[in-house]
Amino acid sequence: DTEVTQTPKHLVMGMTNKKSLKCEQHMGHRAMYWYKQKAKKPPELMFVYSYEKLSINESVPSRFSPECPNSSLLNLHLHALQPEDSALYLCASSQRQVLSGNTIYFGEGSWLTVV
Amino acid sequence: TQLLEQSPQFLSIQEGENLTVYCNSSSVFSSLQWYRQEPGEGPVLLVTVVTGGEVKKLKRLTFQFGDARKDSSLHITAAQPGDTGLYLCAANPRVIIQGAQKLVFGQGTRLTINP
């Protein structure tokens, strides 16, 4: 079962709201990722967690705050977003041990609209 | 600079025709993945290629990894309307950062198969 589950599927929030995106996987993967994808563009890496610790932050604004409560869960807390932050937010996971052929699996994404 | 150059960016052909999508780089990769993405959904893994010169088949799709592990191609035989979508190549640079993967994406090929 190669499944990464994201909720909610769609989210509309105001610029003063606080909301969270959630991601869950039960494949025993120890690396989890947040990507942002704008229309007609490839996904762009935001954060990487490895063994529940933040290992990569791609200079993402602080209005995006990731959290990894345990090895199966990954959250993205949103606060004071801007309309240009509207995008598809993708969660992904992969095995921690990096071997050739190691694969990243994506969730279906959360569509975020900031109004 | 784009690490992975994907071509063509757009392709519209008739049902039954054959097509090839290319993914090229000047860098060597430990592995390369092809994904297909539907509008509003996350990328779905099609294949991972690992060994230089490797060829993998998935029904009417044939994937090849270059001998030097710098490039890859996706060939579709007798394309069908159901093949319509965004095809993304993605690769892991040989230098792995902090044990997690910094997956690099090509710009994508938007494929339309007309009935």
| Beta-strand residue percentage of chain B | over 45%
How does the helix and strand content of chain A classify structurally? mainly beta
Mass-distribution shape of chain A: globular
Bin the helical content of chain B: under 10%
Q: Give unreliable regions of chain A as ranges.
A: none
Instruction: Let me know the number of strands of chain B.
Output: 11
The end-to-end distance of chain B, rounded to whole angstroms, is: 37 Å
What's the shape of chain B?
A: globular
| Average pLDDT, all residues of chain A | 91
Helical region count of chain A? 0
Count of alpha/pi helices of chain B: 0
Structural class of chain B: mainly beta
Q: What is the percentage of strand-forming residues of chain A?
A: over 45%
Number of strands of chain A: 11
Major sheet characteristics of chain B: 6 strands, mixed
How is this structure best described in words?
The complex is a heterodimer of chains A (115) and B (115). The N and C termini of chain A lie far apart (36 Å). Helix content of chain A is 0%, strand content 56%. The model of chain A has no long low-confidence stretch (mean pLDDT 91). With 115 residues, chain A is mainly beta. In chain A, the strands form two sheets. In chain A, strands 2, 4, 5, 6, 9, 10 and 11 form a seven-stranded mixed beta sheet that branches. In chain A, strands 1-3-8-7 form a four-stranded antiparallel beta sheet, with no helix packed on it. Chain A is built from no helices and eleven strands. Chain B has strands at 5-7, 10-14, 19-24, 29-37, 44-49, 55-58, 61-65, 71-76, 85-93, 104-105, 109-114. In chain B, strands 2, 4, 5, 9, 10 and 11 form a six-stranded mixed beta sheet that branches. In chain B, strands 1-3-8-7-6 form a five-stranded antiparallel beta sheet, with no helix packed on it. In chain B, a hairpin with a 5-residue loop joins strand 7 and strand 8. Chain B contains no helices and eleven strands. Chain A binds chain B through residues 2, 4, 6, 31, 33, 40-43, 45, 48-50, 55-56, 88, 90, 92, 94, 96, 98, 100-109, 111, and chain B through 30-31, 33, 35, 40-45, 48, 50, 88, 90, 92, 96-103, 105-108, 110.
